[in-house]
Amino acid sequence: MESNGGVDESTRLLKELQSLKDSKRDIEARISALEGQLRQIQSNQQLNKKASSDCSNGGSEFGHDLTPDMIYRYSRQLLLPSFGVQGQSNLLKSSILVIGAGGLGSPALLYLAACGVGEVSALFIVDFEICRLGMVDHDVVELNNLHRQIIHGEAYIGRSKVESAAAACRSINSTIEIIEHREALRTSNALEIVSKYDIVIDATDNAPSRYLISDCCVLLGKPLVSGAALGLEGQLAVYNYNGGPCYRCLFPTPPPTTACQRCSDSGVLGVVPGVIGCLQALEAIKVASLVGEPLSGRMLLFDALSARIRIVKIRGRSLQCEACGENATMTQENFQHFDYEKFTQSPLSPAPLKLKLLKEDCRISSKEYEEVVKKGDAHVLIDVRPSQHYKIVSLPNSMNVPLASLEDKLPEIESALKSIDNGNAGVYVVCRRGNDSQRAVELLHNKGFVSAKDIVGGLESWARDVDHRFPTY
Amino acid sequence: MQLTLEFGGGLELLCDSVKIHSIDVDLPAEEKKLTMKHLLAWVRSNLIKERPEMFMKGDTVRPGVLVLVNDCDWELSGQLDTTLENKDVVVFISTLHGG
Ligand SMILES: [Zn+2]
């Protein structure tokens, strides 16, 4: 009785805490929005006052248009001989569009908000991951994002990434204008959105977006700061700047889809996109403030494991380029009808692929497999995920035979089956989501294991439908 | 001829996950110079252990692979016709899309 009372009490406290935290967050968001509005009004008044006094005495008070608040906030940048008042003034007049509020966009947005991009005009965010084509749960902050998407905190799990990123930027700098675009960038809205900005940062995570954004920047003459990261490597370049090449000049033909790995499958060390995202902010600041030598016509290659950064010279603008060449076929009209998903053979939306290769009678659900286990039916369970996945979590009594080595390991499966005295032992195949398991069953059928079946939806369905405590990743 | 080859962006997975290879390539018979075309054929038969289609397409690299000879895009030195010298460093890197 007493212990039950303790459970009830802690549930009640947790609920109350959650609701108080929610209210606190909402109030803080409202405070920072109001503070921002107030500062904006004050700053406009100051500018107006200054403008009228400029008219009367024919020059500004300090020879520049920074307000006292701006001077204090950005003083460490103003002190820099190579940046100074002129660099800061240029930065304050600029607007930057960050496409993607994930691993690359997180640090980029934080630094851009902090350094005063668009104090008078705007800092903009588009979250590319919000894709109407995709599943709705891809547009929100998830726990497994937080190790690298450092702009988001635990309090925003389950809420929109753009909303979360905007709140974080406002809490750092309430004097800049932050515009939230809670929609996917598509060929139908890209020209309109991108045209409002001076510089674009590509912080997306897939091939079709990279072509779409590059083409759009070429059509509108916007410099593009492009970054990418995966595993322990990163890449960075500035495209379509000062006569330099565009993304298509470098990669006229898209890579095969098998060469386009995603962080959700291949993994990524959180700080790696962090490093590249910071460098993207830096390049955007250089372009906006007109200081230094932006990374145009060059590419930075970062290898975290060996601590190597290589900067290489890349080709110039290609005369044959479909987007920026002499006989370019890409016009605003063509762009709006261009099918980037078809061109790259991969989806804009991060929704995972759901293959259907097998007939129904070659498959069982995770619940049916649970029955097999409960009844003690003799069987072999083959887990075809890569070994590093298997090491994270696996079902008991399964044998790990990664899909890539399945064909070589058939004798091992054969002997595992023989070791079970019942000659009619079943063969079940499982993977993470239920795609590779189907490919494996197809192969097994062809090699004579005709009874092999796959578990529909893989370990994710096991965790969802059978064992809620089974870890997902 | 001694060369250093580097694979990155995932291409190292095709050669036993080794990124840097110090190699010694003989000049092809009856040739006076080693070109990238020769080197690619050599790499394909000597270093690539699996899925060669992830590295090459026809007699050149597949789309999405950048080739750098001494830190310079091979487009600037003649692609397949680029002549290699002793001690050159050739980098093969697959473009990344993640973020
Ligand atoms: Zn181009």
From TrEMBL, chain A:
Reactions catalysed: [molybdopterin-synthase sulfur-carrier protein]-C-terminal Gly-Gly-AMP + S-sulfanyl-L-cysteinyl-[cysteine desulfurase] + AH2 = [molybdopterin-synthase sulfur-carrier protein]-C-terminal-Gly-aminoethanethioate + L-cysteinyl-[cysteine desulfurase] + A + AMP + 2 H(+); [molybdopterin-synthase sulfur-carrier protein]-C-terminal Gly-Gly + ATP + H(+) = [molybdopterin-synthase sulfur-carrier protein]-C-terminal Gly-Gly-AMP + diphosphate
Pathway: Cofactor biosynthesis; molybdopterin biosynthesis; tRNA modification; 5-methoxycarbonylmethyl-2-thiouridine-tRNA biosynthesis
InterPro entries: MOCS3/Uba4, Rhodanese-like_dom, Rhodanese-like_dom_sf, ThiF/MoeB/HesA, ThiF_NAD_FAD-bd, Ubiquitin-activating_enz
Essential cofactor(s): Zn(2+)
Active site: C263, C431
Family affiliation: In the N-terminal section; belongs to the HesA/MoeB/ThiF family. UBA4 subfamily.
UniProt-recorded name of the protein: Adenylyltransferase and sulfurtransferase MOCS3
Source organism (scientific name): Lactuca sativa
Taxonomic lineage from the root: Eukaryota, Viridiplantae, Streptophyta, Embryophyta, Tracheophyta
Gene designation per UniProt: MOCS3
TrEMBL record, chain B:
Keyword Cytoplasm tagged: yes
Main location: cytoplasm
Transmembrane regions: none
Classification via InterPro entries: Beta-grasp_dom_sf, Mopterin_synth/thiamin_S_b, Urm1
SUPFAM superfamilies named in the record: MoaD/ThiS
Residue(s) of cross-link: Glycyl lysine isopeptide (Gly-Lys) (interchain with K-? in acceptor proteins): G99
Compartments in which it is found: Cytoplasm
Biological process per Gene Ontology, one example term: protein urmylation
Gene Ontology cellular component terms for the protein in this record: cytosol; nucleus
An annotated Gene Ontology molecular function: protein tag activity
Residues recorded as bearing 1-thioglycine in the entry: G99
Pathway annotation from the record: tRNA modification; 5-methoxycarbonylmethyl-2-thiouridine-tRNA biosynthesis
Family assignment from sequence similarity: Belongs to the URM1 family.
Function, in words: Acts as a sulfur carrier required for 2-thiolation of mcm(5)S(2)U at tRNA wobble positions of cytosolic tRNA(Lys), tRNA(Glu) and tRNA(Gln). Serves as sulfur donor in tRNA 2-thiolation reaction by being thiocarboxylated (-COSH) at its C-terminus by MOCS3. The sulfur is then transferred to tRNA to form 2-thiolation of mcm(5)S(2)U. Also acts as a ubiquitin-like protein (UBL) that is covalently conjugated via an isopeptide bond to lysine residues of target proteins.
Stated name of the protein: Ubiquitin-related modifier 1 homolog
